Amino acid sequence: MFGGIREGRVFAGGGSMHYISFGRGAVPLVIIPGLNDGQRTVKGSGPILAYFYRSFARHYRVWVFSRRNELKHGMTTRDMAADQADAMEQLGLNQAMVMGVSQGGMIAQWLAADHPEKIERLVLVITLARQNETLERVVGSWIDMALGGRFGELAVDMVEKTFTGKYLRRMRPFYWLIRKTGKPVSIDRFLIQARSCLSHDAYQSLGRIVSPTLVIGGGGDQIVGGAAVQEELAGAIAGSSLIVYPGLGHGAYAEAPDFGPRILEFLGKSAEPEEHVRS
Predict the structure, then answer these.
(1) Is residue 156 part of a domain?
(2) Prediction pTM value
(3) Residue 208 maps to which CATH number?
């Protein structure tokens, strides 16, 4: 259904990175996920990822990458972009479509600025150009929860800050399960990635991005900030396109029925409106 699912590991950036690939297309679509990667890598999640990204798998060979396993304290989103570029080089993924989601969008900005030859089209999903008070407050509180061992509280707060309305109400009955399964596989891994969000600032380098770019997010985003944040990001990238869902937040990728199809339209394809993007 999704094209052959392959789970692998590539040695790049001085360490190993897990990845999942699937899909029936010939053109590569590289997806860099968000801070959830700080809780657990993509290893073992091939069928789940293939299902969530099934509309993309109809048109592309999709590659979903984790950060490398051997993260070092003090690593930045730019360091992680260098790892990503190395991994793509090792796997022969040149002139790929690239989509970065949340923290993955921060990494994708540096990838596009520092390694423009690797990107044909760029999609920046629910992300920002530089840290701000909203991000600092929210991610700072998550760091405090992790340091205090309050992992169940952390997992629930992530859900509360991400989704809105009916979608959020559907999630709340499952908070007992989310609390039980919310502990990161590696606390250090989560902390390193969370702190890299707080130091992210690619704003002055965004003018070096030459690939056609789509910025897409929620106007009520409680994690990275709303419409003004998306407008700042798009305004710093020459010729970029911008889509903002005014009533939605960080979970717009799941709540807006046309979120995935609008991305596919930008990439040059089409999809049924029920397909969504996964953070």
Answers:
(1) no
(2) 0.95
(3) 3.40.50.1820
